[in-house]
Every structure is written in structure tokens, then in C-alpha cells.
Write a structure and sequence with these properties.
It is a single chain. The chain has 48 helices and 31 strands. By secondary structure, the protein is α/β, with parallel strands linked by helices. A seven-stranded parallel β-sheet has the order 15-18-14-19-24-11-25.
Amino acid sequence: MSFTKEQNQAITSRERNLLVSASAGSGKTTVMIERILSLIEDGASLENMVVCTFTRSAASDMRDKLQNALLKRVGDGTEFSEVAERELLLLPTAEISTLHSWCQRLIRNYFYVIGADPAFEIADEEEAGAMLNAAVDEAVEEKIAANTADFNEFYDVMLSGRTDYALKKLVREVYYYAEAQSDPEAWFSGAATRGLNVPAQSEAVMDEAKIRLKERFLPRAKNLLSRTAEAGFKRNYAAVELLVENILTGGSEPIPTPTGRIPDEFRGLNDEYKALKEAYAKAESALIEFSEAPAPDERARTFTRVLLELTVSAKDKYAEEKKRRARLDYSDLEHLTVKLVENPECAAEIRERYRYIFVDEYQDVNPLQERIISALGGASLFLVGDVKQSIYAFRMCDPNIFLRKYTHYFESGFSKPIELNANFRSAKEVLDFANRTFSPLMTASFGKIDYAATAMLTSGAGITGGAVSLNLIVSGGEPPREAGVYSVLSDDGGVKGDAEAEANRVVADIVDLLENGKVNLPDGSTRPVRESDIAVLSATRGLRQGLIHSKLKKAGVNASLSDALEFSSVPEIARLTEFMKYIVFGADDVALAAVLLSPIGNLTEDELALVRMSGDPAEKRFFVLCENYAATKTDETARKLGEFFALTERYRGYAKTHAACEFVGRLVAEKNWFTRVSAGDDPSLKTDALTAFLDHLASSKYGSSVYEYVEYLSEFSSEADRSPAADAVSIMTVHASKGLEFPFVFLVDTAHGFNFTETFGRVMLDDTMGVCMKNFDETERVVKPNKLTIAAGLKKRRALAEEEMRLLYVAITRPKQGLYVYATVSEKTAEAIAYGAEGFDPESGGCFFDWLAPAFPAYGYNVYAAEDCAAVGEEAEAPVVRQPDEALVAALNEYYDAPKKNAPEHSSVKKSVTAIGKDTEDETATEYLAGADDDRALEKGNAYHKAMEKADYSLSATEAADRLRATETSFALVDEKEFIAAFEAMRARIAGRKIYREKQFVYNPGGTLIQGVIDLLVTDGKTCEIIDYKTSKLSTIESGAYDVQLAAYSLAAEEITGMTADKASIYSFRGGCFMDADQAKIAAIKAKLKAGEI
């Protein structure tokens, strides 16, 4: 294998410690493995090495690749052959793992040195969170009991909606921040109040901002002035000249607005002037606000002290509980390891044992982890990372640690950093676009990397034949941007109509790529594009992800949502959790309003407004207004409120005696929740999500009561894992895509505004100024900014913007061959791009598109009107398919209820029919999580099932096939002869009876809720027949492999409809015939299902 000069240097250099800056696709894993092999050849051994990775999967991948590399050297006829064989024997116990796993092993070996319990166990995230919550609760209750004036005042100020949720959340945030510091105790006693005690800290931040303001805007303004003069645009010259003067001197001379008509040739210059003026005014406003703001007042100082004391108290109580249970959390592992590597009793022994330290993804370490690594400095350090891909600040990762070593390498004991910029992943065209985007964007002053000088990507493999497609969807409205209060619309990706249009365009392009695209192979040949070659990336989870997923499926394309399913992102589930919160907290006005607008309360927005306006204007508590309205009025709104409060009292009683899954299961049945979800937008995705939520409640450690689960929600966002399907378009966030690569990447929703809400918080945590708390105005009962919080907010916004820029870098460097970029913008924005405005200030960016826009005129782009972006494959279906059967739905909801109370403690309370069939085949088989986003059904016969689901039996077989061919993209995968044979056979079998297609069911025959989908249910009103479609081999069907499924389907149909299922059959597409099940065998299996034996 040949290596670049820089790669060889990283592999063979032995002079000092090494820091390697490895850009995306530069082969850093290969370089690390080659360095390990090279050290072994020089006499080192795996038993003296530690290789730390960021994830377990990365560690497993590293171990596998090292094993393969050693195997190749065994028996190769060289002297190294015997050495390689020896190292292979050491590989299973080699220290190749996450940092936490290595810390855990180290503590077990030296527990006696630091007094750790030798029988300690690791507390998982849920258990640790529950213990911390309890400690915070206890600390707060203790302070309330102490009844001190300072705490009482702080507690009163922090109350929100008559609950102390915000206070407790803040305590946890301060705790987590402190624990990530290299010395939490020192932080609490000193650094936490540095900004309060040293006003020069905030002054220094603003002085730097003033200097940077001039650096950011003066060159652009001068350039604009020069081009305005050269173009002869006299109308704007004086205004631009005055703007330059204001920036140069820091003045604020009012700039008159130029008047007069703007010729078309000057439109670009005019748009650029307005954008530059607005951006400068916005950036300058923070400096003006700081100069006019007061210093932190005495109340802010007192409240900061009280907050820190409360956090320390909670910290101590949490530590006591962990000690009692013999538990360590992940932070404990790091802190105890620090004690070991700095303890004279064992530090020398540890350094002697581990002479070579490798750290991957070094840009993602926190201060505490850096302290561990630095303490091992006597060893040979090999640190690999890419600060351009540091995107985990929410995990307390600090890219400045990497940057300090990168900039001051000699003082840190390192050789000059090695730059690996040769990319072996992507085509030259994709790399050129990345360089074009980031050269002006990522600089030493913004991003702390001079991209143009040190990080330009080059093609290491000489791959060509790539393409970049830039796409604008033009709507009538401006996409949401940064605001003082975070916009819900922004979180959802904008107005739904615009999201629909963008999703339609993306799906159309994916379908076209699958039909006509080719993947370029290393040998120069090509192959057709597969669904698994494509990834759809967005910065956040939101509306567009769900729309694209749903529309791809409707277009016949297998698609998989790869990120964890956050239940709160599904409105129908969010209403259920809000109802639980209302049951627990009672006075939660936000939860109450949301629940009243849901099917639980059934009120309209107009009715809510009526309630608000009818009450005492001085009454701020919405729940009081609702109670008064219900008690004093007699109209329809009062009736609904009365029914809601009656239901609330009933369910408050259930909450005292029932588990969370039973509580929600009862509500789901009573309010026909599955029916409502099935009738709404994206029914498949939401039905799966609701099913997964019920599974989650049943299996959660904290689901034994509604109260315990709501407490759990105060710390964690509940979610379910979703594994990507093997052969499907992957839809995921950019964060989830890090470390992955795809032939084609579709980057969507790039006009989605960044979330800067952290910069407006009541309390901010800063690395140099500590706790920064706003002043509290006693007269107005509101918090107000002070110099400390303004400086902290400015730093935070800049840090967030830099991380968003790095996130964009990760996205653009995922594709191998093709990059597709999409933005939905207003007509005004589209027009400005067409005129090619220049001079954009990167730090003013509010969304990805702000940074990408300059490339659009240079590369050329496609423009689509939103109203012209039509859906693919979403034409109306035949009525027989879409009309629900109300009786069947009612029966389903009647039978759907909570799991039986006496179910075994660890048994599954809910399974799919497929899983039950697997249980009968292999009792040790992994349980299938029903309702997770699992595309196994799509992988096996999706196209055939869709054809039979959409087939119109009012047409002839040929006409039905013609219609499907025209409307369903996936029909191209169906053998038309097999379809026509199935169509004719099915129509003859139906013979005038009523049919229901793709009928979902959930029922409880013997202690376990079972869910499934009946492909075809045929009934004459007295009996019913179950028909299941299969593309399997005839021998598989004949073996009885599907008998359990057919029995479960039959039993479900009987219990739901009250009819006898007298026949259960499989239609085999391969055999072109029906294969009737043995009814005696089916009856025996049904009996076992009822008895709970299966």
C-alpha cells in the first residue's frame, strides 16, 4: 500500500508526541493501524498500548482492521511473521476501547489505591439520572425547610407555572458542566464566579468583539465602495461611503436611505449594501447594549451563590447515594482515573505499562479527559482529530483543547502538527465544492482554522465523475430566522406548505436518480444506483424528515429514519405525555392548553381564546380561568371543559394505582388514538411511533407509575432506537452521519434557522467567566441583561455559529460521488442570489444556506416554484382501499387496552405476529421491538404487497396493471404476469364479499399485546377468511413456517369482529396459487395463544 508523504510521516515519526489533523476521508484509521504495526516492528507490543476511540463501534472496527492487517503478515516469509502471530494472541485483551472502558478496567485493577468499591457497577444513563433527580429534590426540600431569606427569594424568582422544574433543571445543568471540568471543586470555589469578581473578564470579551467587528466588516465595506464607484452607481455611493466611515471610526452617524429608481444592473450592489448595513447594525447592537447595560447587581450575586450552594448540596447527596449502591457514573470513571494517573503510588507503574497512547477523535475531548491524557505525557502520545468536525459541544466537548495544542505544539511537547488533507473518499467535484464553500468561511478569526492555508482538500485517489446539484425552491414567504424567542415554526422547518414542496422536489430527484443514475466503481465500470447508496441529511430532526420518509414510501422507495425516534417530536405522543404532566403537576398551563386542543379536551383555538377573554384580566393562571368557566357557564365550551375535568379526575385516580403503560393504554383506547393517527398525516410513521411509545412505557424502569415516569421526563427525552434498514434510503441528522459515507447525499432544509436560544437564557455557563446570571427587576418581576450576561451571550452565539459551520463541513464531506443541496427561500432572496450579491459576513450567518448561497451563482443552480413541486406517486387510491370500516375500528379500539397487570415482570407486554412466530421457532431469539422503524417487510415483497394493496378490482387485470405502472414507481419491480395471475385469482376468491386491505390490529389474547397487519380480510358478514401474501419459496410455506402468523391473524379477526375465521390461506406469487392452512393445526395454535403459551 502506498502512502502520501504526510501519512508516512505520521506512521514513522518517533521524535516527539504527535498531533495529526486528519481531514474528512483522509484515511486516519489506516494511518493509526500502520503506525501500530510500525511500532510493533520496532519492538513495541500491543500489551503496552492503549487505543482510545470515541464509540464502541469505532473500537470494534479498529480491532477488526488491526486483526486483518496482522493476519496478512503471518506466514508472509518475513521476520515479522512470528511477531505478528504473537501479537494476534494478544489482540483479544488489547486495550482498544472507548476511554470510559479503559478507565473502568484501570479502576478495577487499582481500586485499593483510591478506596473504590471493588464490586462497583456502572450506572446506566437512566439510573444515574434518577439518582441525580432524587438528590436535587432532596437538596431543594432541605433548603426550603431551612427557610433562609436568600434561598426563598431565589426559589420564588425561579418558579415557573407554580412548579420548581426550571430551578431543578438549572441545578442539573450546573452540575453536569462542573463535572466536565478538570477539577470540579476548584471550579465551584473559584472559576464559577470569576466573571462576577473580575469585571475585566466581560470587558475583555467586548474589547475583542469591537476589534473583530472592524475586521469583519471594513474590508467588505471598502470593497463594496470601490465596486459601487467603478459601476457608476451614484445613488448609493454616499451611503456606502458613510457606512465605511462608521465602521472605521466606530461611529454611529445615521445613514440616510438612498432614494430613486434602481436600474437592473445595480440591483446586486444595492442588495449587497442593504445586507451589509443590516448585518453591521445587528452586530454593533450588542456592543451598544453592553455599553448601556448595568453590572451584575447584588441580587444576581446572591442568587449565583445560592445556586452554587444548592448544586454542591445535590452533588454531595448524589455521591452518597452512588456510594450506597456501589455505583459509578461515567464522570466518576474519569475523575477516579485522574486520581490514579496522578497518584505517586501507581502512576509510574501505569506509565510503564502503557508506553504508547493513541487517541482518536481528539477534537471531541472535554477538559477532564484532557487532564487524563496529559497525565500520561511520559508515554508516546499519538492524538488524531479534525477540529473542523467537532460537533458535540452539547456533550461538553471543547475543540479549543485541540486548537491549543495545534497552535502551541512545541510548548505542549509535540512535534509540528501533521496535516492529512488528501481525501480518498470523494470525487474531485465534491472536494472542489467543499473548498469553494469553506475557504472564505472558515478562518483563523471565525472557526479558528485557516482553511485556505492549511485545510484545502485534495484528491488522494484521483476520483472524478462526481457532481454537485444546487436547488432552490421559491416560496411566497421568508423562511424563519433567528429571533429573540425560538420559533416553533423554525423548529418544524418552516411553513408546512414549503416543507411539502421541498420534500416533493427531493423525492422526485431521488426517484430519478434510482431510475437513471449510475454509481462509478473503482475499476472504471458502473452499476445502477441502489436505495442504500443514498442518504438524506438535515441539521435537525423535524417536519421535512418525516415528510420525505413518508413520500419516499408512497413513491415505492424503501426509506429508513436512522436517528433515534424522539417521542416528543410526534404531536400525538406529545399530547399524551403532556396529559401525564398535567395529571402530576396540575397547574401546568402550557401542558393544559396543549391537552385541551387535543382529542383529550377537544376544544378549538377559538374556544380557548374565549376562555381567556371571559375571565378576570388580572388572573394570569389559565387553569383557574378554565375551572371558573366550566363552573359558571352553560355553553358548549363549558360542557367540553366539564367533561375534560371529569376525565382528569378519573385518570388522576388511575395514576395512583396503574403503571404508566396501563394509564396511557387506557387513554389510547378510550380516545380512539390509533384511529385518529391512522386518519391523519403520515399514518404509517405515526402508528409505528405510537406503538413504540407503548412498548417504551411497558419496558421502562421508570414506568411503574405515572409520577415516576413524569419525573424521568424531567431529565431525559424519551426515545426509541431505530436501526437503518440494509437496503433503504437513509434519512438522518448530520450528527448521526458523522463517520459514515454514501455515494449520494441529499442535504435538505438548509434554510432552517439556527437555534440560538441558549444565548438568551436567564443563566449561562462560560468557560472563563463561570456562572453568568441576569439581574432580576423586583418592580417589574422580570430578568434583565447585565454586562456579564451580554458578554457571555455574545461568546455563546459565536461558539454556536462556529459549531454549525463545522456541522455543515461534516455534511458536505459525506458524499463520494454526488451532492444535492436544497433550500426553500422567498422570492426576494432568490432574486438577490440571481443578481450575485457579494461580501457576505460569515459570522452573521443564520442558517446553512447563508453560507452556501455565494456558491450558487458560481456553480449554477436549479430554481423551482413551490407550487410546481408535485408529489410523486401520491394519486388518489381506489375507494375500497382507503375507506375505513367504522365497526371494525370501533371493535379494535374496544379490545385495545393496557397490558394485563399480572404479566411477568420481564416478559414482553407487546409483540408483533412475526416475533411470536420467531419465539416458537427459537426461544432464545432476540425479541423484535414492535413498532420500531423496521423495513424488513419492505425488503421482502414490498412492491408486491403495494401492488395488491392498490389494485382496483373494478378494472380488468390489464387495466389495473396499467394504472399501477403509471402511478406506482415500485410496480417496476413486480413481475406483471405474476400480478395478473394474483389479481384474477384474488377477484375470483373474493366473489362479491366485502374486503379490508392492510388491516392493522392490536389485541391481548393471553397476557401479551400482539400487533400485526392482515394483508386481506374477506367477510360475508357471518364468517371471515384471512389471506396473507408471500413471495417466499413454496417449500417454506409448505413447511408450516407461517402457521403461527395465520393463527394469530385468525384469532385477532375473530375477537375483533365477532365472526368465525373459517379459513386462513397464503397466496404464493411464486406458485401462482392459494395454499390453505390446515384448520385443525390453526385451531390448536390459537388455543395456545389464548392460554399464553406462545
